Amino acid sequence: MDTLTIFRRAVGWRFHNRITIAVTLLQPMLWLVLYSLTAGPAMKLQGIENYTAFLFPGLVVLVSFSACGSGGMMNYMMKADGSFYRILTAPVRRGSIVLGQMLEAVLCSLFEVAVMAVISLFFSVKFPQPPGCLVLLLVLAGCGAFLAAGLSYGISLALPNEMIYETAMNALALPVFFLSAALFPASQAQGVLGILIRLNPFTYLIGSMRALMVRGEIHPRETAAVILGFLLLGVLAFRWSAGLLEKETRR
Q1: Which of 36, 124, 194, 214 maximizes the CB count within 10 A of its CB?
Q2: DSSP letter (8 states) at residue 5
Q3: Positions of the chain with pLDDT lower than 70, given as ranges
């Protein structure tokens, strides 16, 4: 019940600050349009017929970091108006506070992914038809957002102000995006770049979503491993954030 209460409160904050949805969606949408128009023709020479569909899973990751980053920003705004400390003095479990805000960030991420999916239809992107495939696509996106939400919440507690927080989130999100298979097939990357891309867990998340979208394929073992791996990483990020919040309580 505590988690649901915090979740509803976070959703209310999001509706009160609707601009955060537009701002976090703007960059991925621009990339979706620009890359589709500029890089699409060149990628056809590489055997990628619909580059927008190829690019979409990578932009899902970018959207998740943007939406979850604004969720972390919520903590700074709540500290400024004093509501953050009122919650800390309430008889609410610290884990419930963190989990409630993380789930709101995941929901916001999935909403923005849905908006981006509608726009991508104008670029001839075809999503997998079987309902099970669409559900699996949302589960994969949600797992990535859950990890991003845990990281952003913890970082917002670890850093002193919004400017440093924004810099840290950009420093995390951009390498995660560019050092992955978001823009081109991982098989094309060689040397040190190839090693870094293969060490990036989001490469495998993007690969699983891309197999569904571009080729309509489900690889049960690989997909299950990706889901379980991201859930484990998300739980670790959650525990880290809850521990930082507990320290905040004792200050």
Answers
A1: 36
A2: H
A3: 1, 39-43, 45-47, 128-129, 131, 251
C-alpha distance from residue 9 to each of 5, 93, 162 (Å) = 6, 15, 21
Coarse DSSP helix, strand, coil percentages of the chain, rounded to the nearest 5 percent: 85, 0, 15
Q: How far apart are CA 247 and CA 251, in angstroms?
A: 7
Asked whether 238 and 98 are in contact (CB, 8 A), the reply is: yes
Closest CA to 114 of 106, 54, 100: 106
Under DSSP, the state recorded for 122 is G
Q: Cβ of 4: how many Cβ atoms within 10 Å?
A: 12
Are the beta carbons of 108 and 184 closer than 8 angstroms? Answer: no
Structure tokens at 61: 């990751």
pLDDT tens per residue, range 101-155: 999 999 989 988 888 888 888 877 777 667 677 889 899 999 999 999 999 999 9
